[in-house]
């Protein structure tokens, strides 16, 4: 894939792909949550907050973050039962839910609707105007995927863009949602093989964040030769969401004031001691961005040559 020009980046923004870029900063957060215990919580409303049906679908058709779209397309009955239940939620009932129940609902809805859009067009053969710049099997070949396709959730019509930008980002102000909602692309965070649940949501979000940041092919990678930190473009597109975040991890050691808020955010989550130490020695470390692979996150796909990583400093 050719490197993007600024006009092309703006075109993608206008079609709902990425938000406007603004600067931000980060801060530390609560202690690392422990693993989940017990059983899913019950609710007095009709909606099943264990998301059991979607949980079974994900367990059956997702492996290592990749989706068996062909298999799900051939047997989608249970999946559509869940889709119907998402749409049947009464807005008045939703007002009685806890913040965790609402957040889990909307994350699962985003991921389920994304899967729905794909299996209803799989294999992807259409070509959108924006899609001419992306792989033939990319979700971006689906015209209006984030801005025009509508789904029913909470008794109203919503788009994926509305769920992400107007509900999840605004109502919950937690940048970890970017590691939980999945845009069905290779460079997206891996799709979890289980549904998000209110009673273990904190643990799940933490796990997703740690896994993504420590994935050198998608999240972050230290470029020792050039002494810079390569990070996902998610940190560029949603930079403002990491500003003054209360959800950064914590680490033992001397305090380091990093010049770049993205470095400050990812540093506590890093598991590789060598990378963490390199950052601690260089608070003014430069940031550049990894190539974003828009190929579909399908289990069966042809692996082609990878374009060069975009080498853009922050």
Question: Care to describe what's here?
Answer:
- The protein has 314 residues and is of the alpha/beta class.
- The protein has a domain at 52-201.
- Helix content is 33%, strand content 9%.
- It has 11 helices and 9 strands.
- The strands form 4 sheets. Strands 6-7-9 form a 3-stranded mixed beta sheet.
- A hairpin with a 4-residue loop joins strand 6 and strand 7 (228-231).
- Helix 6 runs antiparallel to helix 7 (160-172).
- Mean pLDDT is 85; it is low at 1-31, 38-45 and 301-309.
* Spatial extent as radius of gyration: 19 Å
Strand residues, percent:
5-15%
Task: For the record, give the distance between the C-alpha atoms at the N and C termini, rounded to a whole number.
Answer: 21 Å
Order of helices and strands: HEHEEHHHHEEHHEEHEHHE
Shape: globular
Using DSSP, what is the number of strands?
9
**Averaged pLDDT:** 85
Strand order within the widest beta sheet = 6-7-9
Largest sheet: 3 strands, mixed
Q: What is the tally of helical segments? A: 11
Low-confidence stretches: 1-31, 38-45, 301-309
Task: Give helix % range.
Answer: 25-40%
Structural class: alpha/beta
Question: Which characteristics define this entry?
Answer:
314 residues, alpha/beta, 3-stranded mixed β-sheet, two-stranded parallel ribbon, 11 helices, globular
């Amino acid at each position: 894939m050719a490197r993007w020009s600024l006009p092309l980046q703006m075109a993608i923004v206008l079609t709902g792909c990425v938000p406007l870029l603004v600067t931000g900063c980060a801060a530390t957060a609560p202690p690392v949550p422990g693993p989940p215990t017990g059983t899913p919580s019950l609710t007095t409303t009709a909606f099943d907050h264990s998301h059991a049906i979607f949980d079974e679908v994900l367990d059956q058709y997702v492996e290592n973050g990749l989706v068996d779209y062909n298999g799900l397309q051939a047997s989608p009955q249970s999946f559509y039962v869940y889709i119907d239940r998402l749409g049947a939620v009464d807005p008045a009932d939703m007002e009685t839910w806890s913040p965790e129940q609402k957040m889990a609902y909307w994350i699962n809805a985003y991921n389920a609707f994304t899967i729905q859009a794909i299996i209803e067009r799989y294999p992807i053969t259409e070509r959108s105007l924006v899609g001419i710049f992306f792989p033939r099997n990319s979700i971006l070949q689906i015209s209006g995927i984030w801005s025009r396709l509508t789904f029913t959730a909470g008794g109203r019509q919503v788009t994926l863009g509305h769920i992400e930008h107007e509900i999840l980002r605004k109502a919950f102000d937690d940048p970890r949602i970017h590691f939980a909602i999945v845009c069905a692309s290779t460079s997206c965070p891996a799709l979890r093989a289980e549904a998000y649940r209110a009673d273990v949501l904190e643990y799940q979000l933490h796990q997703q964040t740690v896994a993504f940041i420590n994935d050198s092919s998608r999240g972050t990678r230290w470029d020792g030769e050039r002494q810079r930190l390569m990070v996902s473009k998610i940190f560029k597109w949603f930079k403002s969401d990491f500003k003054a975040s209360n959800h950064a991890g914590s680490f033992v050691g001397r305090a380091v004031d990093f010049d770049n808020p993205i470095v400050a955010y990812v540093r506590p989550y890093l598991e590789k001691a060598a990378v963490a130490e390199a950052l601690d020695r260089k608070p003014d470390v430069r940031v550049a961005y990894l190539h974003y692979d828009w190929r579909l996150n399908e289990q069966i796909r042809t692996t082609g040559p990878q374009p060069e990583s975009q080498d853009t400093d922050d």
